[in-house]
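Q: Please design a sequence for this.
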């Protein structure tokens, strides 16, 4: 029998409500569960008219299905469960000391995708990522339109963290998105499922997809304040690594007939 979530949505098998509203728990391995939040279907603002050409224009998108997204980026602790289960080679260590609750970095797009497949999840599309980060009304940053401050995220000029390393996940509740998703600005960039197309939001430009590169979003601890905005787009080849690049997964329900995806 199907169970229902905090918003009366049908839950996929393996998902359950946590004691803490509105958090969900997705089981992966060895009793470990990923905390997730539900993003409902509906319209939202995507893109902007005020920044780089690949972010233009500001427009309305409609996601016809709901989904769940990890509340924080995947950590070293969670990624090591995947390594131990699959014999995947551990990513090269960044120059700072590894801690269990630091976001995993130096992962390629392929490794992030393999983790998602192993855990029954997916990498988010740009649509899913941006709606989760900015809500329905088009926030410039997850928390609103004000520039980052000490309570909201880690960025390059952050007085406390500087350019040394990312922060432990979930340590900036004041930086939450309208849906309660954490660390979507600064800290580490996050891989998305999509190929990078610089003209993705512009109609009538023909085919311009750079098929080799994959998108990543969100800014990182080496980014400027402005690069932490919700519309900022960047890309790497899928086999590249970066000490400031990690990921967070999503879950699409099999009960949603509109959730078919090719990646």
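A: Design:
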């Amino acid at each position: 029998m199907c169970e229902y979530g905090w918003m009366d949505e049908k839950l996929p098998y393996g998902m359950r409500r946590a004691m803490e509203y509105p958090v969900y728990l997705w089981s992966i391995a060895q009793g470990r569960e990923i905390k997730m939040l539900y993003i409902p279907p509906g319209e939202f603002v995507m893109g902007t008219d005020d920044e780089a050409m690949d972010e233009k224009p500001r427009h309305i998108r409609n996601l016809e299905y709901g989904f769940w997204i990890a509340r924080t980026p995947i950590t070293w602790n969670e990624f090591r469960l995947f390594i131990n289960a699959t014999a995947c080679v551990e990513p090269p260590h960044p120059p700072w000391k590894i801690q269990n609750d630091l976001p995993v970095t130096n992962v390629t797009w392929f490794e992030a995708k393999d983790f998602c497949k192993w855990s029954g999840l997916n990498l988010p599309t740009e649509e899913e990522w941006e709606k989760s980060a900015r809500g329905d009304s088009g926030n410039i940053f997850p928390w609103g339109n004000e520039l980052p401050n000490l309570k909201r995220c880690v960025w390059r000029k952050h007085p406390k963290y500087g350019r040394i390393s990312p922060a432990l996940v979930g340590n900036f509740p004041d930086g939450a998105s309208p849906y309660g998703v954490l660390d979507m600005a600064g800290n580490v960039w996050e891989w998305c499922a999509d190929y990078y197309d610089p003209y993705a939001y512009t109609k009538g430009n023909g085919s311009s997809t750079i098929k080799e590169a994959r998108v990543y979003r969100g800014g990182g601890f080496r980014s400027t304040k402005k690069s932490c905005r919700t519309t900022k787009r960047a890309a790497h080849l899928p086999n590249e690594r970066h000490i400031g690049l990690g990921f967070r997964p999503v879950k699409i329900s099999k009960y949603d007939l509109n959730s078919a995806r090719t990646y």
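Q: Thanks. Anything notable?
A: Residues 102 and 168 are 5 Å apart (CA to CA). The chain has one domain: 15-252.
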